[in-house]
């Protein structure tokens, strides 16, 4: 059996009610169907018929054959067919007891439907009885020729859920959208949205401040780390300079430009400079203080210097540089302070001085 089942109730005034039920139609009582119809303005004086047989409130679906897409009919009590061995007086008591069993929840549901029930019809009038009898006679033909799924009903189809507590109508999406929202709820929603927006802005500000604080701390930490590293490298440079001074028997120190002049005559003067950016000791000395004016001689000089610098084999692992503006030719080499000991400068200095002297002799021979 499907979860959703439907059946139809046709009234004497032409209205058709479609009931969609979740559950077993065989357990649905006639009294519950009547209470649901009453919430839509159907009077208590109407009798429910199924295939021409009157139904009592205590009957359930499986007793009279209620099934999916079945059709029940409403008719006045006077024109309804009496079930066998069931007096009218007994049916009246059943209707009265069903009316007394209406709960407060059902009364509240009646009030929510809005409006009042139509005025009671005069069931004793001849015109009304004739119309009801004619409607009852036409019911078989109408049941045979009307498609229950496509029947045009005067009231919108209402879905209801069937449970132990009874039949409770469920509002459709159109009914929910047409229901106006209370003003208090609207104001509360606006207040909550405003408060949520303010909280989001505050959270974003806090996140931004946290990012800035992290950046400041990172920069400060990096600066401290850099200072520590530079200080360590500088101490290594000073240690190398002290080691060379001990070898030469003199005291060597860096000046304000972190440069130290080693040697007491021009022929043996070597400069040692500490560079904090590259973390190296630069050792350099002049090979020539004035470039030749003759282009041919200058070309030969350049060729000599380039050939000697090949693979740095003849320049103590360093290189030869030329300054055309100042007319100076320099021989230089470097010591990476991060990867050397305090005796590196002392070990390399004799080789460097010997290389300077050899290059000076070669240049002098070329220019003489």
From TrEMBL:
Record field: compositional bias (Polar residues): 122-133, 170-181
InterPro entries: Tir_chaperone
Amino acid composition bias (Basic and acidic residues), ranges on this chain: 101-113, 134-152
One Pfam family in the UniProt entry: CesT
Biological process annotations from GO: protein secretion by the type III secretion system
Region Disordered, annotated ranges: 78-199
Superkingdom as given in the UniProt entry: Eukaryota
Protein name: Ubiquitin-like domain-containing protein
Species for this entry: Trypanosoma congolense (strain IL3000)
